[in-house]
From TrEMBL:
Signal peptide start and end residues: none
Membrane topology classification: Multi-pass membrane protein
Compartments, as annotated in UniProt: Cell membrane
GO cellular component: plasma membrane
InterPro entries in alphabetical order: GPCR_Rhodpsn, GPCR_Rhodpsn_7TM, TAAR
Transmembrane segments: 6-29, 41-62, 68-87, 108-130, 142-165, 213-237, 294-319, 356-378, 398-418, 430-452, 487-508, 520-547
Domain G-protein coupled receptors family 1 profile per the UniProt entry, residue ranges: 20-270, 309-544
Protein name from the UniProt record: G-protein coupled receptors family 1 profile domain-containing protein
Domain of life of the organism encoding this protein: Eukaryota
Sequence similarity: Belongs to the G-protein coupled receptor 1 family.
Organism: Pocillopora meandrina
Matches recorded under CDD domains: 7tm_classA_rhodopsin-like
Entry-linked Pfam families: 7tm_1
Length: 611
């Protein structure tokens, strides 16, 4: 991966971080039961994660060498560490000193919160004391102190605290088992024993919460381990060759992703493991078909990824004129249907699964997705099987294909209005059978048949290509055949994903509608079908971006234009998502040769000429 190519995945991660952590803050704001001391620290941590996704990552990608960037990055990252520290301290006090916990929180809660923001801000602007002076000694000492107090000490505290918490939890579990066994022999307990049992139950609940926060702390430890290693190497070793050997570029890039993933993991862990958050989410979705919180959260995350990835496809075609081809306009239409799947279909179905309007929306969006995929497949089929016809037929058929792929699903999905969507009538049953056959099974067969024919033609074309001589016209023919073969492979992967993802739907509709045997449909399969449909909409843009040649070229060109003026020191500094401060660049530049920028420009120029 080139250094500039991390911008797109980090951009998607940034949006995911902002959305998920914002949901945590909204849940606490909307539900008074969640306004506890522990959740106050959780909200503070979520706000620092929001700043990581909304400010730190975009700013660090766009302006990695700007002096202000260093101060902002340092303040936000140290704030995140301070809030993880406070969350761990909160659990430590609740488990180890439960009788003093509320007294301590009533006295120091707001002081803890304010301190977790003020202290990092103050520490991050300390380099302003020596300003623009090249005081390398002071900067190095400051970095070591910052690394020790901002990473190593919290790192050790989290490890020691949760070790003691789990030792206490083990003791509580043993005591609960002993009390339970004694209770079975003694029969009824007196009031003192009941109070003790209630205390044990409370401690058991606190232990569950501690386990959840232990997962957050483990993610913190794992995400900051590369940063701890890289900062130690970069500021402890003065020899540039040794630094480059011990800190490869892939590890530098990986460190930035681990810090971003740490901010993305926290709200997901709250939803899955923290009992109070989990209970509130269940109340928010009382009548949904998939009845587990895990399904709702997972599908919500998938919805966000679907919308973002397909939106990138649409924006690329809009901004890059080279991508405005007949095939790519069909891709945009397919991407729009996928955006509707992630942005409308899944959220509406999770919130109001039994609504009549939901049924119309689900039917129209799913059928439009299938119709667009059939249109794209037909476009590729004509391009490979009848290339001479394709050149003059494609422009004429493009508008018709795009219109039909949206108009027909819309009309068909509204037909039940004529019989008021009465599922007991025979006409509705016939309607469902026709929709299953013409909307699922027939496209399923057509796509399979079309790509089998295309691959046979591609194999025949590749055999012909080997026999062509070295004339110029034949070289052009070889290039055309090779390009068509690549495009066919890309769309075959998309079609294979469609076939696999829609297989559960084919089985469910066949068993329920044709054979009228819903008892042979496992409940797990009905849940899996949601994920397969979402996965199908997520796979399409990923296939375009990573496999389709013109999209790959457009992405590389776009990223190269954004980062053409980056120097080698920028490449080295970009993934160091740890303790970036003002003046850090001068420390590292002191370890680099003076002609590094010229060499970098020479390499970039050579790369552009080759491309």
């Amino acid at each position: 991966m080139q250094p500039s190519e991390i911008a797109i995945p980090l951009g998607c991660l940034s949006l995911l971080i902002v959305v998920t952590n914002s949901c945590v803050c909204l849940l606490v704001y909307l539900h008074p039961k969640l306004r506890t001391y522990t959740n106050g620290f959780v909200v503070s941590l979520a706000v620092s994660d929001i700043l990581t996704g909304a400010l730190l990552l975009p700013l660090y990608i766009a302006l990695p060498m700007h002096p202000v960037t260093g101060y902002i990055v340092s303040a936000i990252l140290l704030t995140g560490v301070a809030n993880v520290f406070l969350v761990t301290l909160d659990r430590y006090l609740a488990i180890k000193k439960p009788f003093n916990y509320y007294a301590v929180m009533r006295r120091y809660f707001f002081k803890f919160i304010v301190g977790s923001w003020i202290v990092p801000l103050f520490v991050s602007i300390i380099p302003l004391i020596w300003g623009s002076k090249d005081n390398i000694l002071a900067q190095t000492i400051y970095m070591f102190m910052l690394q020790g107090m901002g990473v190593v000490v919290p790192y050790l505290f989290v490890c020691i605290a949760y070790y003691q918490i789990f030792q206490q939890a083990r003791h509580i579990v043993k005591r609960l088992r002993r009390d339970s066994s004694l209770g079975s022999w003694r029969g009824k307990r007196d009031n003192k024993d009941k109070l003790k049992k209630n205390s044990n139950s409370t401690m058991a609940s606190e232990t569950k919460v501690a386990k959840m926060f232990a997962l957050i702390s483990i993610s913190f430890l794992l995400s900051w381990t590369p940063v701890l290693y890289l900062t130690s190497v970069m500021f402890a070793i003065t020899d540039r060759n040794t630094v480059e050997m011990l800190s490869p570029v892939w590890l530098l890039e990986f460190s930035l992703f681990t810090v971003a993933l740490g901010s993305a993991v926290n709200p997901i862990v709250y939803s899955f493991f923290k009992p109070d958050f989990r209970g509130i989410i269940k109340k928010r979705f009382p009548n949904r078909t998939p009845s587990t919180t895990e399904v709702v959260v997972s599908l919500s995350i998938l919805s966000i990824l679907i919308v973002l990835s397909n939106l990138c496809v649409c924006l690329l075609v809009y901004f890059k004129k080279d991508l405005r081809t007949n095939t790519n306009w069909l891709m945009v239409s397919l991407a729009v249907s996928d955006i509707l799947t992630g942005g409308v279909l899944l959220p509406v179905y999770l919130i109001k699964p039994s609504s009549i309007i939901t049924g119309y929306l689900v039917c129209m969006i799913l059928l439009s997705g299938v119709a667009n995929l059939c249109t794209v497949t037909y476009d590729r089929y004509v391009a490979i099987m009848k290339p001479l016809e394709y050149s003059y037929r494609a422009p004429k058929k493009l508008k018709i294909g795009l219109a039909l792929s949206w108009v027909l699903p819309a009309i068909y999905s509204l037909l039940p209005l004529f019989w008021e969507t009465d599922s007991t009538r025979i006409i509705h049953r016939a309607y469902m059978v026709c929709m299953m056959f013409f909307g699922i099974i027939l496209p399923y067969i057509f796509i399979t048949f079309a790509y089998v024919r295309m691959f046979k033609q591609v194999r025949r074309s590749l055999t012909m290509k080997k026999n062509l001589d070295s004339l110029r016209v034949h070289k052009n023919e070889r290039k055309r055949l090779h390009s068509e073969a690549k495009v066919a492979k890309v769309f075959s992967i998309v079609a294979s994903a469609f076939l696999l993802c829609w297989l559960p739907i084919v089985y469910i509709t066949t068993a329920d509608i044709i054979f009228n045997r819903p008892n042979i449909i496992p409940y797990a399969l009905s849940i899996i079908s949601f994920f397969t449909i979402a996965t199908s909409s997520l796979v399409n843009p990923l296939m375009y971006a990573f496999l389709k040649p013109d999209f790959k070229k457009a992405i590389r060109t776009c990223l190269r234009e954004c980062t053409r003026k980056e120097t080698a020191s920028t490449i080295r500094n970009l993934p160091l998502a740890a303790l970036t401060i003002g003046g850090r660049e001068r420390i590292y530049e002191a370890k680099l040769p003076n002609n590094i920028s010229a060499k970098t420009e020479e390499l970039l120029s050579k790369e552009n000429n080759d491309s």
